[in-house]
Amino acid sequence: MKRLVLSFVLVAALVGFSVFGSVTVKKKGGEISEMLDGAISAAEKGDMAEAKAAAKRIEDLFVEAENTLALFLDHEIVNKLGADISQLYYLADKETKNDFSAYCRSAKITVTHIMASETPTLSNVL
Predict the structure, then answer these.
(1) Which of 35, 48, 83, 115 lies 20 to 30 Å from 65, alpha-carbon distance?
(2) 12-44 pLDDT, tens digit each
(3) Structure letter (DSSP) for residue 35
(4) How far apart are CA 13 and CA 11, in angstroms?
(5) Which has the higher per-residue pLDDT, 125 or 87?
(6) Rounded Cα gap, residues 30 and 50, in angstroms
(7) 8-29 burial, b if ≥16 CB within 10 A, otherwise e?
(8) Residues 114 and 72 sit within 8 Å (Cβ to Cβ)
(9) What pTM does this model have?
(10) What burial letters (b/e) apply to 69-98, b meaning 16+ CB within 10 Å?
């Protein structure tokens, strides 16, 4: 009987950790995605000062969330996202507006991929 109870406790802990991870990744991913949309919008309007400020906010949020994301995600994906985000601040100039938008879109695709992989579907579970 003790083994059965212990088994249920372990399964409940694993399920709780998985649900917490999925919710956390989706929440942080949603925040980063919204901020990337704002940065892209500012760059397309030609407001590179606002795009640069948005890039700084995105980088600060990512640095804050990076350790948590690394607990639940493949480190290579987190590193790729970090590399794209880290370049945004320096690309927020008039001359590199297209590069800025391209890196924002690359980061957005990575975030979208991360969020889709956290949806509990049969293919993601297996």
Answers:
(1) 48
(2) 998 888 888 888 889 999 999 999 999 999 998
(3) H
(4) 5
(5) 87
(6) 20
(7) eeeeeeeeeeeeebbebbeebb
(8) no
(9) 0.82
(10) beebbeeebbeebbebbbbbbebbeeebbe
Token pair, residue 99, equals 């590069």
| The pLDDT value given to residue 121 | 64
pLDDT value at 61 more than 90 = yes
C-alpha distances in Å from residue 23, one per residue of 8, 27, 100: 22, 6, 29
User: What pLDDT was estimated at residue 56?
Assistant: 94
How many residues does the structure list for the chain? 126
Q: Which tokens hold the place of 32?
A: 């980063």
Instruction: Assess contact for 52 and 120: CB atoms under 8 A.
Output: no
DSSP characters over 55-70? HHHHHHHHHHHHHHHH
